[in-house]
Specification:
The complex is a heterodimer of chains A (380) and B (332). Chain A is mainly α and 380 residues long. Chain A has one domain. Chain A is built from 15 helices and no strands. Chain A starts with a helix and ends in a 6-residue tail after the last helix. Chain B folds into two domains: 220 residues, P-loop containing nucleotide triphosphate hydrolases (Rossmann fold); 63 residues, 2-Layer Sandwich (Alpha-Beta Plaits). In chain B, β12 and β13 form a beta hairpin. The longest helix of chain B is centred in the last third of the chain and has 20 residues. In chain B, α3 packs across α4 and α6 runs parallel beside α7. The radius of gyration of chain B is 24 Å and the shape is elongated. With 332 residues, chain B is of the alpha/beta class. The chains are: A mainly alpha (380), B alpha/beta (332).
Amino acid sequence: MPSLENTAEERKTPEKTAGAVSSAKEASASGPDKWKDTAAFEAAGKKKVSEERREVRYHSLDALYRKELADHICGKRFVIILIIVAAMTIASVYGALSGIKAGLQAAASGGSNEPFDTTFMFLKLYTTSGNSIPSYMSLIALIGPFIGLILGFDAINSEKNNGTLNRLVSQPIYRDSIIVGKFLASATLITVMVFATGIAVGAAGFLFSGIKPSGEEIMRVLIYLIYTVIYICFWLSMSMLFSVFTRHAATSALASIALWLFFAIFMSLLAGIIADAAYPVQTEYQQLYNAMKNANLNAGLNRVSPYYLYSEAASIIMNPVARAINAISYAQLVGAITGYLPLSQSMLLVWPHLVGLLALTFVAFEISYVGFMRQEIRSS
Amino acid sequence: MAEDMIIRTRDLTKAYGSKVAVNHLNLEIRKGEIFGLLGPNGAGKTTTILMLLGLTEPTLGTASIDGHDCTRDSLQVKRITGYLPDNVGFYADMTGRENLRFTARLNGVPENQIDSRIDSLLERVGMTQAADQKAGTYSKGMKQRMGIADVLMKDPEVIIMDEPTNGLDPEGMREFLQLIKQLSTEDGRTILVSSHQLYQIQQICDRVGIFVDGSLVAAGKIGELGRKIASEGHYVLEIEAEPCDDRFLGFIGSLEGVKDLSKEGDRFIITSSRDLRAGITHFLGMNNYTLLHMRQKGGDLDEIYRVYFEQAEKEEEKNAKSGKHGGRKKDA
């Protein structure tokens, strides 16, 4: 990744250096020799520089990464995150188990018309809700962003306000190591946490219900957890973006929470309103003519929201019965044999979601990166 | 003489929009000296320092430290330059020692040397007792001393301090200045101190530069600057006499060369273009006045500062002609 120092070095053309030296000679009568020496020194040292530079990047990034990680783990907010995550995991396992039990009982007593589908039971631990507790999947889609926000909302601005950033940038390190180190440390923590809770849900379910995972189910869960990590990292980079551009930690926290609420709640309402306005489906005739377009526009708009993107991808991965993400006409369904999608086909459906989530994460991070590199950092 | 200039800037300029923070600054600082950059708040001192460290890009001109260009080769510059910012901050949740260890790692100090290095630096700045305290509990003075230890961690050739004496109590100030002086005399480091507090800086600086509205209006040894003012015919006399009547006032007003006369309490402050002391004492003696106080000002930094500010202001007024710029006083 380019840094301020790096790009500045690349920009330095020989002509420029020569120009600087000669103009220096003209004007600074007191020390022309010194400038000549400087040019010679620079030329001689150039070979060594690239090697040294890699070394500097490595050890400074390493030091920053370790410090950030230690900060997170020793800090109070880590306790908050742990409590949230533990409560979420326990509640969802309990909910899933009671939901599965209720479903099985209903099927056994003949209360419901459809037989209880017992294939891919292990995945049901993640997707079943019960006792009015949402499933693990929907809980993490809603609460997960919070973890990212907590880890990132004051990444830059609090250091700026404490005067520590000032001290940091005057050390012989590349400035981008600071923001990259912060991002990597938080991303590491998110990865560990997501995999820990995800595996804990499976393990608890296995212990209490005896549901044994198949190989494909394990793969699906792992892929699902990778999506989750990327999803939460998007929120991390989003909150870091706010922390770069706002002065107070409170402002960036509020801004990122507002964005989270917007995507989680209001985006779908907004998409519905816009889709209905563009393709009204009030009368029967309108429905006949517009229903498909309405549904597609609605879904398309919704997919701007990372919340929707992630939820959609998760439901496809964790539910092999789901075979399409867009609206399907009855005509298309004629002659279709009901069955489960193999993992590869499910992946084919959600591949764009992965790319989309990654792109959103990178765009948010890139904006904060560039913003941070260009900022002038002075003590306030 | 020219060889041992370690910091030099050439036409260094920084403009924020239409506001020029630093205006064609040409500064040369010798190796091993303590240079005081003096000026009121907002004169462009911090901006200059940021440019020297490569933390902000100059609009025009160049700066170099020990031959390394500050903008293009800022990594090398930061390796040999320690920076103690105004309001230096430490990670509040970490102890002083941990903070120093972090700095050491960022500077690539080998792991097996870090601890001994920290111990010797802590001792040097007198922070050994407080080293294992959380940095959040440090007072301003402790923070500043810790800041010095932090800066010394990289064993810098040049140390740049931005308003280091802000908010220190007199005793802390005295110790702190002693420490700065030591860094120069014992270790041979070059030190650039920016400040608006004249008297403290006066005690330790080899040379000073006076900075007003982005321009360096004067630079040199304090004594030289004082003599320069005197040779330009600038005298300020404080005088108090008993009885303080109109006749005395009238006499002063009638003296040749008086430029300005003001009253501060019972004392008259007379600005003149020549030495008035002989004339006034003669008059007082002849007319049965009692001389209570008489002091010729000038030569001290306060006076130097004031004179250069006035000059800079006059020039500005000449340029601007709006006349709405008066009232700037020293903020010490």
